[in-house]
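Here comes a specimen:
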Amino acid sequence: MPDTFRSPAHVVAQQSESSVRPVLRNTRVRIAIGLTALACAGGLGYRVGTRRAFIRDQRIANGPEMPEARPATWKPENRALSLPEHQEGKVTPQTEALAIDMTRPVRITWPLDVGLDPTPQEGSPSRLCLRARQGANELQEAGQGKAFYPFTAPEGGTYHTWFRVRWIDDGIGHIMCNNSWFAGFDDLPAEVIGNETDERDWFWQAGPDVTLTKGIHWLRVELREDGTLMDRAAIVPAQEKLPKSQLDAIVPSSLHTLAGHRIPLCPEHPIQNVEFHALPTESLVIGMNHVNMVALCASWQAPSTSATFSGQIQIHCPTAPGLTVQGTADVTCRAGSPFVRRELVLSFPPDSARRVHRTTISVNAEDGTPVFRKTIRFFSPPAWAFLGPFKDSSRGAKGVYRYTGTINRLGAACDATPRKLALRQTPAKLKLEGHPTTDGRATAWQLVSDGSCYDWSGAIDLRSVYGDERPAFAYAVTWLQAETKLNHRSFSFQADDAGWLWINGHTVAHLSMDLPREAHRLWTSGPLDKGPNPVVVKLTQNQRYWGFRLDVVDWHWQGRRGDVVTGIAPASWPSE
């Protein structure tokens, strides 16, 4: 058939097809353009929305968390809180020797405090003393842990020094790591006091000989080991042959007109007319079996013998509305009554957020002038779930693997998937059957939500959960809530013995050697998502202590809302 021949139907069909093609093509173009425009609009909307959310989160993060003041409510003082002071009931012998009451420092810095002997000997009177409580060494920072006492040397010459001390058992039968102080005079280097015996009752420990000029000097006592107590010091002229049996009879003396004087070791801060200090004397932890107590002391130092200081103690904690304080808020001191001590018991609301609560203790004079301010960090801790204890099979027949690193062989399949641990899956699902328990019995997750697994200083003690099981390892899990996404939140982690730390599935710390728990040893960081974030710890037990410390570190974001990290109530933890 010739190419020019077309049937009418074929011509009509061809004409129809040729007329439809531009329409379809135009429709496809319109759809493509529409989809592109929609995608652009969606992308632009997403970017704008994300940017707005980012700006909003940044605005939250950079704003103050809670600017309004929340003063505590005061309750009447409970007379049972009054702490007895140890009185000798004797008179000063005829001597040039002098004694110092160590419970009345003019200045003192944490983690030293003044409180009751925590474990008095049976039949011994309860007494106040200068203390370095068990665990205080872990909290000490550079330049802290010092107490200063002024005295007057009657004549120039050489003096023998004595200190009435007591060494406390560390809870597992050891004394020799808890039996020394540092002591020094004026700006002279401190020397070791003790470190010789395992005496468990109060006794007089010889200190260094010191050459003094006539006049005012300063005794300085510093923390060296924790678990140590001290309540008296005696400074005896070298020419006097005063036996130790007569040291108890020296009635302590003190100076109370030192305003304007400067302590030789820190002359940049002269003594004020009234010196104040406020120290926590019980637990820093809010929760079951924990008492939160602050001792505020005022020392009269003005040269005038007729003036009087009267003031009012105020306590604020913006993050704990409903805080109540039991004690006396009035502070009055003068030359005739130069030393005042106030025992204040703080009761945080049971529903306090699981976080650090910065509590400000201040003193205002009668005219409202602020004269003292101190912030103490109490905290309501996160709950923890524990799994274990599993037998440590990596040791074999080796007695101690301290510092050998063999703990690296103590791996488990679930270590590669810490999210499964965070969801508290069963030991079977975690494939832990190959790790027998220390007692041969099946184990399950144990939840501790009331803070009873913490010691007074804020360290978690697995011995309170499992007892003294060794050699062993166990897991601990909690969840933290972040108000905004944080790309590098800082944490402080210390483990006793070896330990691993996973946050949000990331390995942020791996302490492969058997080391003692010490605060501030390891600072690390990890990302936190907005919302709940899993935290998993694996911890081994070799000997003595078994615990760890995990702190959210406050640095340049301190006090900003978006950086707030809190513990989550166990009922709200994600689970499988």
Summary: Residues 1-20, 396-405 have pLDDT under 50 and may be disordered. Residues 69-81+270-380 form a domain with the Immunoglobulin-like fold (CATH 2.60.40.10). The chain has three domains: 69-81+270-380, 89-250, 384-572. Helices lie at 8-62, 136-139, 418-422, 463-466.
